[in-house]
Amino acid sequence: MDFELSGDQVDLQEGMRKLCEGRFPMETVRELEASDGVDRALWSELVDAGVFTLRAPEADGGVGLGSAESVLVFEELGRACVPGPLVASEIAASNEVVGIVERARGPVVIEYWNVLDRLLVLESNGIAEVDPASVVAARSEHPVDPLTPIWIAERLPTGVQVGDGELASRVRLNGALLTAAIQLGLSEAVLDVAVAYAKERQQFDRPIGSFQAVKHMLADMLVRTEVARAAVYAAGVTIDDPSVGDVDRAVSAAKITAGDAAVKNGKAAIQVHGGMGFTWEVDAHLYLKRAWALDTAFGSPDFHSELLATRL
Amino acid sequence: MDFELSGDQVDLQEGMRKLCEGRFPMETVRELEASDGVDRALWSELVDAGVFTLRAPEADGGVGLGSAESVLVFEELGRACVPGPLVASEIAASNEVVGIVERARGPVVIEYWNVLDRLLVLESNGIAEVDPASVVAARSEHPVDPLTPIWIAERLPTGVQVGDGELASRVRLNGALLTAAIQLGLSEAVLDVAVAYAKERQQFDRPIGSFQAVKHMLADMLVRTEVARAAVYAAGVTIDDPSVGDVDRAVSAAKITAGDAAVKNGKAAIQVHGGMGFTWEVDAHLYLKRAWALDTAFGSPDFHSELLATRL
Amino acid sequence: MAGVAMNLRDSDSDAAFRAELRGWLAEALPGFPPDRPGEDDWQGRREYDTAWQRTLFEAGYAGIAWSEEVGGRGATPTEQLIFLEEAEKAGAPYVGVNFVGLLHAGPTLYAEASVEQKAAHLPRILRGDEVWCQGFSEPSAGSDLASLRTRAIRDGDEYVINGSKIWTSHAQVADYCEMLVRTDPDASKHRGISWLIVPMATAGIDVRPLKTIVGGSEFSEVFLDNVRVPVANRVGDENDGWRVAMVTFSFERGTAFVGEMLQSMQLVRDLAQVAKKVTRGSATAWDDAGLRREIGHLSAGLDALWALTKRNVSQASRNGVPGVGGSVFKLHYSETRHRLGELTMRVLDRASLSMLDVSGLRSGKHVEGHLHAISISIAAGTSQIQRNIVAERVLGLPKDR
Amino acid sequence: MAGVAMNLRDSDSDAAFRAELRGWLAEALPGFPPDRPGEDDWQGRREYDTAWQRTLFEAGYAGIAWSEEVGGRGATPTEQLIFLEEAEKAGAPYVGVNFVGLLHAGPTLYAEASVEQKAAHLPRILRGDEVWCQGFSEPSAGSDLASLRTRAIRDGDEYVINGSKIWTSHAQVADYCEMLVRTDPDASKHRGISWLIVPMATAGIDVRPLKTIVGGSEFSEVFLDNVRVPVANRVGDENDGWRVAMVTFSFERGTAFVGEMLQSMQLVRDLAQVAKKVTRGSATAWDDAGLRREIGHLSAGLDALWALTKRNVSQASRNGVPGVGGSVFKLHYSETRHRLGELTMRVLDRASLSMLDVSGLRSGKHVEGHLHAISISIAAGTSQIQRNIVAERVLGLPKDR
Q1: Which of A21, A119, B133, D231 could pair with A132 in a Cys bridge, judged by C-beta atoms 3.0 to 4.6 Å apart?
Q2: Distance of alpha carbon B31 from alpha carbon B19, whole angstroms
Q3: If DSSP codes are grouped into helix, strand and coil, which group holds residue A65?
Q4: B2 occurs within a structural domain
Q5: Which residue of C has its CA nearest to B261?
Q6: In angstroms, rounded to a whole number, what is the distance separating the alpha carbons of residues B123 and A167?
Q7: Among residues A114, A147, A164, which one ends one of the domains?
Q8: pLDDT at C393
Q9: B305 and B173 part of one domain
Q10: What percent of chain C has pLDDT over 70?
Q11: Are B140 and D210 in contact (CB < 8 Å)?
Q12: So what's the pLDDT on residue D250?
């Protein structure tokens, strides 16, 4: 057992972080609202970096790495608050922009519909592919996350079966894993933002970070982040090597703890910022809103808690 | 509307507080463990003070006051951490020591069984009276609250029907109300204990109550107490005058908020005391344990939450 | 016992007041346009809100809590509660742009201003002729309000003001701003502040909308560049403005959150209805015992807060001054609204991604309510500041600073 | 990639160690009495625990983490984790009365004591011949340990000690106490402390059991009345005892809570089983979606903590020194155990009134677990202190004192 990153993994993580810092500073991320979250040129840079084909076999033109590595990459995407249907596109191992939705009894919320090249629908016993253009969907003018534009389809076309039930399960599992990785990145980033503010902002002639109330909020944010990191990394490692544990259980624990960290840290960061945190201008809310948008993706915490309970 | 105590009510409250301070200081309360929570001489003093007949009509030898007043009295009993089947005995408007239990599908936990003169059993559609001596019950040698000794009966005799379904409902309602009043008193008392300690205990050359972390724990305790007080008093007033609101709803809100305050304040008080709070010698745990023992009496918070939901 | 003991019943006079008010609302509201102009139409909103204020004034309901000598109704805190309750239940317009004038600047003027200043403003505020805004907070003075830095330098009969203010509601359409400025930078921070009446039409004032995380621009920033205001516009002594500003806080009679409270209770009832429509597995969210129970639990918290409101109002009626009931209320209300917001997201599941209703499901206001909740634990004293207040003033714990 | 990248698999040598250990446990345990003597039988427990320690010693498993030169196994942190994991899974006896000697006093002696002191104690501790207890905390020195007041005054070749210690485990049956005493009352508080080896048989030592809220007397108070100890029993320099004591904390390699963690995970699994037996309405507590989900949620938290344990151990293996992983772990573990306790009460409903099983329902240990949880957020640094540590040492926030 060595649950620390290898040198190669540290390099991968740092490389991805630099790429994101260079290409996706928060000014750029904010501007992506105008292009509904996806700018084709920037998307190509992610494609070129192998973000979406990291786990695909080298024989298929992929990078041939494992889930542990893809977790590190998606953590960085989360840290940079990069929008777009990242998880679905990675799962499709595609250089196209891909969406994945669950077929539901009621209306279906489709993220980034107008920029999708492909749309996969998870069914109770398989996967169907649907032409995005064939879907009738109405845009919500006020998505909760400005960078996760959504459309609502009252019903989805049947589509063409492209995978069986087992593949659908694998997609759900990997979707939850990578979503958790993004949530982990969001938790870290918003903690960094809050800590920086707490050190700089003066009230009552002291940095607010010297008040125990603020300090302890930040400490709790760090705790949630590190607990989530352990769970998310463990889930990645377990998918790569199922002999070390129960894969479903590891992924559910990751999705629950990372979702919890992202949402609670987002809220706490706004509270640390006080009134400024309630302004659009301060970034804290963007992390929180992304966290909300991801909370229900590939199974809500409630869904995964139920799943975990049945595996006890 | 005047939701402040009247002069008479303040007098009643203060009188009861003095009685409890005189007769039930914590040393005495602790000693009551030896007599399974009830000392007949002390019980008589409560009887003489009219604690159990406060709401009985004067024609029946009662004091003829309302639920608002009985709430004030039971709040003081809670504040003093007085043990014994107080609520059941008041509901029976009896000078005897009375127990009330819910008939259940499984085993039934009976509090104070060996000191009971009478035992009432709430059924799905009425009330039965059972001779306590006819019940086969095994003592638990380690009750969670040392002052709430318990016995477990695998089954209860049928008993004699003494009330209909409507009376059973009224008993449940009043049982929840008075239990909530005791819980309110516990919340206040344990807050007082914690505040006193925080002012006196020095660490790092300062009273610990000057640290924000401790201060804010105590502030939250006060908030819970005052929220519970509003709910409990409102429930008492509403039972007396159902024209001002939904009685069931008011009582459920009281039981939930007072239960929450008593348990959380108990835990917080121990945390404020640090290691000393984990000793038997410091009183904090006695309040918490009583709060636990009462939490499931006359409906747990979960039970009342469900009830409230159905009344929305 | 009835009538003397603690009770929640209307007294005879309160019952009469309620009945009369209810009758009047039933008559007045149908003649009033139901829809307040939208977010970007500040002028339209000013007209709408002030028209309603004039309607109230003409019916004798303006300035419910103001004394009769300045044209108010001189109502008790209980009557004020009844007014707010009935207005909310009847769906009457909110106080809107009249908020600062009626509830903050007006009461301050009434308590501290000169005879001339009162005569110039109070009747106009009551009639809806004059709209006020507040210039207290600054970007660098939030929780530590007294550290404000906007400077006013005396130049003959005028103050020359430079600086900026933030969180100013209705600045776009206000006629006046109650403003705290620093007149003595060398004094200790609470001692060098003055309270000024600043006409918003004065040259050098620039109002810029401040976008919040909800998306709209409910608030503004106000930038002050050599703004000249007559010394005669000062209320109270020079450098005594902190005390003047604090006077108004004692005007709070426990009713600050009545409208919000009633809306929150409605929100929970509506959430229960929404839960019955959201599919969850093969049933609905309402069929889930856990979610249902949490809705019930939240409802208990709000019922308790509504009772606490009545206690706070009763205390204000008896004592005339507010206790720390307001801080206690706000702490629990903030927490409850945060919990409600979190529960909302769980109940709505995928529909929580939209701040607008999702195909027939009335979910939008619940999501927006969650965003609003975030401001409650921050605005008008963060929960951290409120806990300090409660701990120090009620529990007598040592000051930390 | 395998072998170099982050992984949770046993290395070949770890797998061999685990297999060998598992084999040995399977052979050794059946010959060992299964039941540890009860609460009041301190002497019996000493004999039981030290017999197991001698068994471990003879098999080469004593002092897993101690270096080979003092008779330990010199195992890596990962092997230590494997040892604790396999011992727990096999139901082996706990470290018991050997705790302080093996995990605290011993490592301190190893790092700081003289050759003679080491020779006198270390081999005996490893063999289970010598039992130690700890005399650090005092009634008035809890979170602020360095404010301890127990005085040691030098009198020729001896220190004369007066004062009292609290939270001393196994004091009744210990041979020695590692004790912090104040040798210079005029120095700043961290600078006037010395670290002494105090033989518990010395005249003037009075051990009184301390009853905890769980009901038992796991701990004692130790009163010291003119207790004479040779100066030769001091470890490290006079007045340098604070540094000596801190050395041991760096010995923590992320494994402090392994046994507790595995027990907690078992507790959640057992709670699920209990929930299936507790009646709730016309079904069981397990049929309640809300309760079931909360059990699942807690299980997620514990799974994450188990992964965090492995991260902390891996870090210790790489760096040799502990990070603040321990504080992070303890904060979340405390919170998780509190939540588990609260959930336990809800699941058990009326059975939660008993700390013993209720008519066939295996509920007792769950209620007792809730009481135990209360100590977790207090002992070895309250959650408040831990948050300060995390905020200041990891996040670099300014010190508050």
Answers
A1: A119
A2: 18
A3: coil
A4: no
A5: C301
A6: 53
A7: A164
A8: 93
A9: yes
A10: 97
A11: no
A12: 62
Decide: C211 and C217 in contact? Cβ < 8 Å: yes
Identify the three-state secondary structure at position B4. Answer: coil
Residues B157 and B246 in one domain: no
Q: Is the pLDDT of residue B246 over 60?
A: yes
Inter-chain residue contact D397 with A209, CB threshold 8 Å: yes
A208 interaction partners in chain C (CB closer than 8 Å): 143
Both B284 and B180 in one domain: the answer is yes
Average pLDDT over every residue of C219-226: 97
- C193-210 per-position pLDDT tens digit: 999 999 999 999 999 999
Cα–Cα distance, A114 to A94 (Å, whole number) = 17
User: ipTM of this complex > 0.90?
Assistant: yes
Query: Domain of A111?
Result: 98-164
Query: Would you say residue A192 lies in a domain?
Result: yes
3 state SS of D135: strand
Q: How far apart are alpha carbons C230 and C233 in whole angstroms?
A: 5
Residue pair C358/C352 in contact by the 8 Å Cβ criterion? no
Do both A145 and A259 map to the same domain? no
Tokens 């747990």 sit at which residue? B300
- A307/A174 same-domain check: yes
CB count, 10 Å around CB of B10? 12
Q: Does B292 touch chain A (CB under 8 A)?
A: no
Give the distance from residue C312's alpha carbon to the nearest chain A alpha carbon, in angstroms. Answer: 27
Report whether C62 contacts C71 (CB < 8 A): yes
Which of C136, C190, C274, C353 is most worth mutating to test chain A (most A CB atoms within 10 A of its CB)? C353
So which residues of C are the catalytic ones? 252
**Same domain, residue pair B232 and B305:** yes
The predicted-structure confidence for A103-126, as pLDDT tens digits, reads as follows 988 899 999 999 999 999 999 999
Distance CA B8, CA B16 (A): 12
Checking if the pLDDT of D1 tops 50, the result is no
How many whole angstroms separate alpha carbon A147 and alpha carbon A283?
13
* Domains of chain C, earliest start first: 12-94 (1.10.540.10), 133-239 (2.40.110.10), 257-394 (1.20.140.10)
- Report in angstroms the alpha-carbon separations of D362 from A114, B108, B302, C169, D374: 57, 16, 22, 60, 21
pLDDT class for D187, splitting at 50, 70, 90?
very high
Q: How far is C310 from chain B (nearest CA, A)?
A: 7
**Is B275 contained in some domain?**
yes
- Mean confidence (pLDDT) of chain B: 97
Mean pLDDT taken over chain A: 97
pLDDT score, position C250: 63
Q: What is the pLDDT of residues C277-309, one digit of tens each?
A: 999 888 999 999 999 999 999 999 999 999 999
Domain-embedded: residue B1? no
Domain end position, chosen among A113, A137, A164:
A164
Query: Does B125 share its domain with B36?
Result: no
Active site residues of D: 252
* B155 and B195 both lie in a single domain: no
Can you state the percent helix, strand and coil of chain B, rounding each to 5?
60, 10, 25
Domain count, chain B: 3
